[in-house]
Structure formats: C-alpha cells, structure tokens
Amino acid sequence: MQNIAIFGATGSIGGSTLDVLSHYKDRYQVFALTANSRVEELVRLCESHHPRIALVADESKKDELAFALKSRGLSDIEVWAGESDLVRLAALPEVDVAVLAIVGAAGLAPTFSAARAGKRLLLANKESVVCGGALLMKSIKEHGAELLPVDSEHNAIFQCLTSASDEDRKNARLILTASGGPFRKRMDLTEVTPEDAVAHPTWNMGRKISVDSATLMNKGLEVIEASWLFGFPPDRIDVVIHPQSLIHSMVQYADGCILAQMGAPDMRTPIAYSLGWPERLDGFAKRVDFAALGSVTFEAPDIQRFPQLGYAYEALRMGGAASIVLNAANEIAVEAFLDRRIRFLDIARACRHMMDTMVLAAPKSLPEVLAADREARIKTREVIAQW
Ligand code: NAD
Ligand code: MG
User: Fold this and answer.
1) Left if phi > 0, otherwise alpha if psi is -120 to 50, otherwise beta: which for 118?
2) What does the pLDDT look like over 145-157, one tens digit per residue?
3) 3-class state of residue 172 by DSSP
4) Residue 37 CA: which ligand 1 atom is closest?
5) Burial zone of 231 (CB within 10 Å; 0-12 exposed, 13-18 middle, 19+ buried)
6) 338-354 CB burial, b ≥16 within 10 A, e <16
C-alpha cells in the first residue's frame, strides 16, 4: 500500500488523480489532501476519500476547516495549515508519492521539499520546473527522488525516450504538440473575454492553464519544462500545432525515426502511468477509435499572434532568472485578465515589458528563486496598475 499526498486536490489535476486512485484502492491510499482556501470543497473530498491529513494553505481558514470536519464526524482527520505545513507534509516519512498539482509558483516550495525528501514526485506543476530549473533537477538527483512528469507532453516524451541511449538522446529532437487553443482560427484577439479564453476545445483544465493555452504561454512554459526535464537545449525542441490532441508529443531520432505517444486527451492516462511506473496499470480511459477519427492534422504555430511562445524560447536562451520573470509576469497578468483589469493582449504586453526591464542573476538557492519570483510579481503588479 502506498500513501499518496495530493497537493492541490481541489483542482482539475487533483480531481483526475482522485478518480484514478478510486480505481486502485488495493494499491494506493489517499493519505493527505491540500487546498488553497476552498474549505467546503476540501471537506467534501475528505468525506469521500477519508485522508489522514487535510491541509488548507490559507492559514486563516484553519479553524473553519477543523470545525467543518468535526461537524461532519471527521474529527479523526488531522488539520494542517499554511505554507510551512505544505513543505512539512511533502517531506513526511509516511508519504510515498507527492502529487504536485498546485497551480503557479505557489507549487515551488512543496515540490522542492518532496525532492529533498527523496519522494516519488508526480509533477503537474510545470511552473516549479520553469522557475526551479537546474536547482530542482540537481536536488532530485542528489536526493534520489523520482520525477514522473504528469504534463501530457512530457509524459509522452518520457515514454518515447525510455529506450534511448545517451548518444541517441544527444542527437534527438523533441517535438511538442499543441492543440492551438480556442483562438487558433481567430485572427483578431482584441476583444477576447475571460469566458472565451477558458473555453478550451480539447482539454478540461483549471482557469489559469486554460488562459495559458489560449495565449500559447502554456506551450512556451512546456518548452522550458522539457528543456530542464530531459536536458535538451531550446534549438532541439520544436512545437507543432495538432488540433485533435491525439499525439501528445514525439521524439525524432537521428536516423529519422519518430516515436510518438498517443491516446485520448484525458489527464487520467498520464497520471495513472506515473503512479504505476514502471508497470502499466489497467486502463479505464477511453480507447481511441482510429477509424472514427478520420484525419489528424498539423500546422506551424503563429508566433505573430501568440508571441509568448517565442518569449519562452528567448527566456531559455537568456538564462539567469529570465524564465522566473516571464512566469511571474504571466501569472500576474493572467490573474488581472481573469479579473477584467487588463485585456487579453495585455498579457503578452506585460510579459514583454518585464523581460525587457527586469534582468536578474541566476538564483543559487530556493530562497533566491522565491525572492526573484516575488520581485517580478511586485513589479508586474505596479506596471499593470498604471495601464
Ligand atoms: P486548478 O486551478 O484546477 O487547481 C489548482 C489547485 O491548486 C487547487 O487545488 C487550488 O486549491 C491549489 N492552489 C492554488 N493556489 C494555491 C496556493 N497559493 N497555495 C496552495 N494551493 C494553491 O489547476 P489545474 O488545472 O489542476 O493545474 C494544476 C497544475 O497542473 C498547473 O501547474 C498546471 O499548469 C498543471 N497542468 C494541468 C493540466 C490540466 O489538465 N489541468 C495539464 C497539465 C499540467
Ligand atoms: Mg501540457
């Protein structure tokens, strides 16, 4: 029996993970569930999954959580709260697997903590790879942690690289696929509303990543993520638009052979793969009916309309803290767009502005990463407030 702690249990990835786990109750136990502030939602999950620990990141909600659990007859569930408890939970000896499904840079501290404690990390939180970069990869290696990428593209590449020698890898190219998001065919993006932006054509996801998919920032973050996870430089990572989301990504080897990983667009598949690895769990996701599928298509991404994809390559080449600045600017701008304080195209404008004006040295430790992230957030908020 393995104990699973889900960081960000109330989110889209959290929910998919709980669904997978409910099919394998003989192998995995839901040990801990965390949420940011939605106590009601967390308590509902506690009722159906009965973890040992429930954690609310917003410390001011601790009493509310304790009271709600008690009133539902769940006072045997331990109540934890705050960021320091998130870090403590990720390193707890009883935890075998940490599912890192918090959205944004808030996921950094628990991800690093799980890495330092040598856990198996099921990593959905791409922002922690984008910001943590070399430091995170080093920590994983040094502490014997196992990183299984849950992001579907990286999970696909992980699968396509399994039989590759070091030499094969050196000459290979990664090809990340992208659905193209909801605005693939929309030429004028000036009037885009938050409702338009979160309506993704093939994937059902949280609001922030849905907006990132609409700007192609998501693919940009994934290029940076792939570079760190697999040790590929930006000039050996390509992006191709593939609207049907059947192929989740590919590896092209020097001999011209291309390995692709396919499946229905359902996050439960990469989650189940990462849980079971190196075994494959019996599937329950929808089978692909190729005959019914008809055609699958590919096209080049439009960098003019979606410049943030280009910014990600630029940040990767710039090094230093450029990826942290880009990620922070994007997070703050997406939040402002969802609150209707700025327009859709201002998200890219904020990212461009921050990359042009804030150049920080490469951080040497997690506190330095967090400090760079904080500084970039403050500056982005100031800039946006003046628009
Ligand atoms: P979501 O918005 O649905 O859920 C986010 C979760 O994080 C919630 O449980 C929320 O309570 C928690 N959270 C938010 N802010 C927090 C904070 N400051 N402190 C602690 N907890 C906080 O997001 P999601 O779509 O599930 O995405 C989660 C992560 O997985 C993101 O990094 C995203 O890029 C990545 N991802 C998601 C998908 C997908 O299909 N949804 C696919 C690939 C990668
Ligand atoms: Mg992805």
Assistant:
1) left
2) 999 999 999 999 9
3) coil
4) 11
5) exposed
6) beeebbbbbbbbbbbbb
- pTM for the whole thing? 0.97
Asked if residue 278 has a cis previous peptide bond (ω within 30° of 0), the answer is yes
What letter would DSSP give residue 361? P
**What is the tens place of the pLDDT at every residue in 17-59?**
999 999 999 999 999 999 999 999 999 999 999 999 999 999 9
Is 102 near ligand 1, meaning CB less than 6 Å away?
yes
Q: How far is the CA of 36 from the centre of ligand 1 (A)?
A: 10
* Gyration radius of the chain's alpha carbons: 20
Q: For residues 376 and 278, what is the distance between their CA atoms, to the nearest angstrom?
A: 39
Q: Report the separation in Å between the CA atom of 40 and the middle of ligand 2, taken as the mean of its atom positions.
A: 29
Q: Are 5 and 99 within 8 A, CB to CB?
A: yes
- Positive or negative CA dihedral for 170, 157, 149, 129? positive
Cβ atoms 285, 263 nearer than 8 A: yes
Order of strands, sheet of 237-241, starting from the edge strand that comes earlier in the sequence: 237-241, 173-178, 247-252, 258-262
How many Å lie between the centroid of ligand 1 and the Cα of residue 289? 30
Rounded Cα–Cα distance for residues 77 and 88 (Å): 17
CA of residue 151 to ligand 2 center, whole Å: 5
Q: What is the pLDDT of residues 209-222, one digit of tens each?
A: 999 999 999 999 99
Ligand approaching nearest to the C-alpha of 202: 1
Length of the chain: 387
Query: Going by CA atoms, what residue is nearest to atom 41 of ligand 1?
Result: 205
DSSP state of 303: T
Assigned token pair, 67: 């009271």
The Cα 61–Cα 52 span in angstroms is 18
Please give the number of the atom of ligand 1 that sits closest to the Cα of 267: 40
Q: Return the best residue to mutate from 7, 10, 13 for the ligand 1 pocket (most ligand atoms within 8 A of CB).
A: 13
